[in-house]
Amino acid sequence: MKALSLRELEAAARALLEPGIHDLFAGGSEDEVSLRANEDAFARVGLVPRVLRGRGAPRLDTELLGCRASLPIVLAPTAFHRLAHPEGERATARAAAAAGAIFTVSMASTTAIEDIAQAGGPLWFQLYLQPDRGFTEALVRRVEAAGCKALVVTVDSPVFGRRERDLRNGFMDLPPGLCCENMRPLGPDGERGPARSIAFSPTLSWADVDWLRELTSLPIALKGVLHPEDAKRSLDSGVDALFVSNHGGRQLDTVPAPLELLAPIADAVGDRLPLVLDGGVRRGTDALKAFALGARAVAIGRPVLWGLAVGGEAGVAHVLSLLRSELERALALCGCGSADDASPELLHFSRWEPRWRTS
Ligand SMILES: Cc1cc2nc3c(=O)[nH]c(=O)nc-3n(C[C@H](O)[C@H](O)[C@H](O)COP(=O)(O)O)c2cc1C
Ligand SMILES: CCCCCCC(=O)C(=O)O
């Protein structure tokens, strides 16, 4: 039976995945306060529809960082797709390409970027800047050659978050036969060497972003910017977009939900930088709320892994199709012709408290 919603798909994936892999995907850091906050934030904002606006059937197509996409929902970078399904990132890429959706490939993908690019859809590549600049430069050249259209630099990970589910389950590394394929340097004839590990470095600074800006002409998005002052600072480094993200609640715990932090960031950067929000997006209405608060697009992480686990390429296609139809319906019900029509006037922030008559 096909899942009617991402919630149903999540339950189906949970039943199929080996428990340690399920926890690896589902978990957050420490007490998982941010993880829970991400979905809760959407539930706490109401939508107040406008009526009789005659906007016609909503259009979802958009352009982001020079890429045309058929919907403003991006696949966020997530590691290790081959733990969810043997076809891994290849299956994800085929589903995204068929849907006209942008797929952000994780630096920690279990399939090499060249093989993922065979699917032919629009790809961005997520990068953890490595202290070894020579390695980073070689990887950037490789990603450019593979045809990726943008770099998404994750800046919320100077150290790795403490994920206690993984510690409890003893998940230390990928099983034999799998590795982070992009971490295998290419030899002169394109042969892939042994994988090196990904370094998380607390010495990274804006100087490294400036260095990357000089290195490549690809558009650069910074992922994990949550403070308005950092958003403003990013303008000086010539970046092209920001992902307003708390890494799905997997890095610093107790960071508020990105939805709650979006408006001040949108205020800080104005029209100068497009914003992509991720964290807890599970419904078309969630996406609409993010657009109303200033996001140009949203990104989804775990739902893609649930789709993969349940049905490989068809499962990811189903995730995108559910969200597409939900978003079309939500826009139409709110009197919007596109995501650009969404504005804060549609949102209701409840301060209502019941007062019961006692006499
Ligand atoms: C299993 C898993 C792996 C992830 N891997 C990466 C990664 O390699 N790089 C990265 O920048 N973010 C990574 N993320 C974070 C996502 O890009 C994204 O910010 C987050 O999943 C969005 O929240 P959601 O899962 O609630 O949609 C990962 C998240 C999960 C759940
Ligand atoms: C040593 C590989 C680490 C992969 C990191 C993936 C990630 O960002 C996550 O949240 O998990």
Automatic annotation (TrEMBL):
* Domain named FMN hydroxy acid dehydrogenase: residues: 1-352
Q: Cofactor(s) for this protein? A: FMN
Please name the catalytic residues of this protein. H247
UniProt entry keywords in alphabetical sequence: Flavoprotein, FMN, Oxidoreductase
Q: Locate the residues binding glyoxylate.
A: Y128, R163, H247, R250
A GO MF annotation of the entry reads: oxidoreductase activity, acting on CH-OH group of donors
Q: Which residues bind FMN?
A: 77-79, 106, 126, 154, 223, 245, 278-282, 301-302
Family of this protein: Belongs to the FMN-dependent alpha-hydroxy acid dehydrogenase family.
Q: Which PANTHER family match?
A: 2-HYDROXYACID OXIDASE 1 (PTHR10578:SF107), S -2-HYDROXY-ACID OXIDASE-RELATED (PTHR10578)
What's the name of the protein?
L-lactate dehydrogenase
Q: Which organism is it from?
A: Cystobacter fuscus (strain ATCC 25194 / DSM 2262 / NBRC 100088 / M29)
Query: What are the leading ranks of the lineage?
Result: Bacteria, Pseudomonadati, Myxococcota, Myxococcia, Myxococcales
